[in-house]
Amino acid sequence: MTAQGARYLVVTPCRDEAQFARRTLDSMVAQTLRPALWVIVDDGSRDETPTILAEYAARHAWIRVVRREDRGGRSVGPGVIDAFYAGLTTVDTREFEFLCKLDLDLDLPARYFELLVERMRADPRLGTCSGTAWFPKPDGGLESEGCGPEMSVGMTKFYRRVCFEEIGGFVREVMWDGIDCHRCRMLGWKAASFDDAELRFVHLRPMGSSQTSIWSGRLRHGRGQWFMGTGFLYMTASALFRMAHRPFVVGGIGMWTGWLSACLRRAPRYPDVEFRRFLRSFQRTGLLHGKRRAIEIFDERQRVTWKGGAS
User: Fold this and answer.
1) Which end of the chain is less enclosed by CB atoms within 10 A, N or C?
2) What is the pLDDT of residues 254-302, one digit of tens each?
């Protein structure tokens, strides 16, 4: 299946991204399949981001900038999704076959979106997908962020529009980028990230470091896992896995500490009890058989729940 004639919308929430914005903008301009429309929501930037965005919007008619007032600081999770919807609501999404939530600190390969569209068209049940994130190492090389194959990554969520609508869009909480993919699978859609060489992209800012520090980002992730419904054994296994990746040890400890602190104070959890049961069942299967086998088992099991995009 080819990507010919595909119309896709990209919405980018951003704040104070002058350090990285041009790399992302240039990589989007270089795409072999450009978006029909790219809405960039400047969420009250205080640096040179607005000037850079205005420059590119003046040169490219398919780039539109939406300016929001300064809300006082970067807000990961709910704030990012609020900004995303501030852009999405300016558009009639029915005009697009696909949509994407994209960060402004990425360097994408030229065929990135062309290849994602081809994957979507080849598999009607593929509701959301992405490439994989790699970040720069001090020695100049690249290292994988180690995101699992069971979901599209948060910094570049590419969606079939009808799937996005069926799952109800993004939850305005920290683990929005995990809840969405598990809801996809629960409803019979597939969610995936592909580690092909042509779909690997550079994440210019390490995952979980965009607000205060890596430590606070990992604590936030652990608290988000608690909210989503992740169980103790899976959280512990995930934290141990993360200890072997940058930032070594401390990242995993931060995640586990965030989850445990939320558990001990009985913090709120995602209110859909059926979803939380589904999530924990998937996680237990992953611990027993590995993630890739768990994906196969659940994608086959949930086939009967798939409506093919019919509401």
Assistant:
1) C
2) 999 999 999 999 999 999 999 999 999 999 999 999 999 999 999 999 9
Q: What are the residue ranges spanned by the domains of the chain?
A: 8-203, 214-305
Domain 8-203 sits in CATH at 3.90.550.10
Backbone torsions φ then ψ of 251, nearest 5 degrees: -65, -45
CB 298 within 8 A of CB 151: no
Q: What confidence score (pLDDT) does residue 98 get?
A: 98
What pLDDT digit, counting tens, does each position of 63-79 carry? 999 999 876 655 567 89
Residues written for the chain: 311
Helix (H, G, I), strand (E, B) or coil at 5: coil
User: Is the Cβ–Cβ distance between 85 and 63 less than 8 Å?
Assistant: no
Q: How many angstroms from the chain centroid is the CA of residue 181?
A: 9
Tracing tokens 């729940």 back to the chain, one arrives at 305
**Sign of the C-alpha dihedral, residues 190, 196, 202, 208?**
positive
Q: Which residues contact 197 (CB under 8 A, 6 or more apart)?
A: none
What does residue 160 show for φ and ψ, rounded to 5 degrees? -70, 125
